[in-house]
Amino acid sequence: MTGTTGRVALVTGASSGIGAATARLLAARGMRVVVNYLRNTKAAEEVVADIEAAGGQAMATQADVREEAAVESMVGQVQAAWGGIDVLVHNALIPYAVKPFEDMTWEELGGKIDAEMHAAFAVTKAVLPTMTERGWGRLIYIGTGLSRLPRAGMIALGVSKAALEQFARYLAQELGPQGITVNVVSPGPVESRTADAVLDDATRQRQVAATPLGRLAHPADVAQAVAFYAAEDNSFMTGTTAAVNGGLAMY
Description:
The chain has 251 residues and is α/β, with parallel strands linked by helices. The protein has 8 helices and 7 strands. The chain is globular, with a radius of gyration of 17 Å. The two termini are 26 Å apart.
């Protein structure tokens, strides 16, 4: 991957898991990385320290991406320090209920869809002006294989991320003429603290057994796909979804 040196990447939800792995990898590829986080200041600062220790550039910025004013303030801080944002990796995980539809309220389903899309809308709106002005940009959204391959109890996440994927396709169609690519990285089950909360041992074992590559994804696997889409020389892929699932679902 060449030519990304000096580009500014904003990674939302970057204090742990996929976001942290992505922030570290993009920094290793020469980008200046904004490590967005919601609550865990210490973890975000550790990601920044790791990047700086490896010779990269990073800053931590707190913002709830569901709040437009907070997002605009964060982007303003980045512009003051480094100029505009060239690459958006929207990874922040919006909380959701894990339960069957029969037991679910509209607030749990509709609230998740609303919060998911509001966050994507807010961060995209905030970063677009600079990308449009420069005629170059990378918008990358983290989806989920559950959008296409349902699993019990995961309707709120699967439906909201399906909406996010379609949102990305519409943006790809609209923004292509302005030199901005828009893609989705869609992980299968990932080894992380979040996965521990929704995958019991029996479910985990079934997922591994059904995966040709014989394991769950690691955050670094997902980060590799993100970095591929973010690269300067990857200029002719847009409106696509990369499935990072070890062959668990092939589509």
